[in-house]
Amino acid sequence: MRALIFGDVHGNLVALEEMLQKERGEVDLLVSHGDVVNYGPWSNECVQLLDSIGCTCLRGNHEEAFLKGSYPGENAIVKAFFQHCYASFTEHDTIATYGDGVAVGDYKVQHTLNDRYIYPDTDIETLNLQQNAIIGHSHHQFSAETASGIKLFNTGSVGQNRKFINVINYIIYDTSSAELSLKALVYDVDVVIDKMKIDNYPSTCLNYYQQKKRL
């Protein structure tokens, strides 16, 4: 079985559709590990699309915030994104059905571990991993392995790459061969920014996207 495992779409329909167009016909299973919503201008549409194609969807911290109706953090930019995106969000019932984690082959897929942002330079020995895991949350794609041989993969972000804003990251996992591949695609992020301008995003949100590096 081949699985497409991804996450942190963050309302970016353009990036989501680009990835699905390339990979959907080549896989047997689709798994989103969370944060379909917020930031980008298409939170509703991304939720609806994944629901319509039978994707197994897990809940991230941004789904939690949308279900509660408030963002718990102190970051002013994230708060601005939340206030703008949440005002027009309607898919509460759908994201309420999202699970916490799912087993795929030899891996447990979930949004993150211990509510932490886990980066390429994180000492994964401190995570006390008990099984192979595939996560997201930090928007950085990487793989690591503990001294005892437990593997950790971060898919990176589909819709809001923190290194290069115009790059889509995800994973293809072949459970039969045990091969797990980190994937990347370049897309036109200006389409997203133009839609944000049409939707009257706050300038602080537009600046966040416009000032990011591109590949």
Describe the structure.
With 215 residues, the protein is of the alpha/beta class. The chain has a single domain (2-210), classed as Purple Acid Phosphatase, chain A, domain 2 (4-Layer Sandwich), CATH 3.60.21. It contains 7 helices and 10 strands. The protein has helices at 13-23, 43-52, 61-68, 76-86, 92-95, 190-198, 203-210, and strands at 2-6, 29-32, 56-57, 101-104, 107-110, 133-135, 141-145, 151-155, 167-174, 179-186. The strands form 2 sheets. It has a 5-stranded mixed beta sheet, covered by helices on one side. A 5-stranded mixed beta sheet has the order 4-5-6-8-7, with no helix packed on it. The chain is globular. The two termini are 32 Å apart. The mean pLDDT is 97. This is Metallophosphoesterase family protein. It comes from Pontibacter toksunensis. InterPro entries: Ap4A_hydrolase, Calcineurin-like_PHP, Metallo-depent_PP-like. Pfam families: Metallophos. Residues 1-120 form the Calcineurin-like phosphoesterase domain.
Task: Break the fold down into its secondary structure elements and pairings.
Blueprint: E1 2-6, H1 13-23, E2 29-32, H2 43-52, E3 56-57, H3 61-68, H4 76-86, H5 92-95, E4 101-104, E5 107-110, E6 133-135, E7 141-145, E8 151-155, E9 167-174, E10 179-186, H6 190-198, H7 203-210
Parallel strand pairs: 1-2, 2-3, 5-6, 6-8
Antiparallel strand pairs: 1-9, 4-5, 7-8, 9-10
Protein name: Metallophosphoesterase family protein
Domain Calcineurin-like phosphoesterase: 1-120
Organism: Pontibacter toksunensis
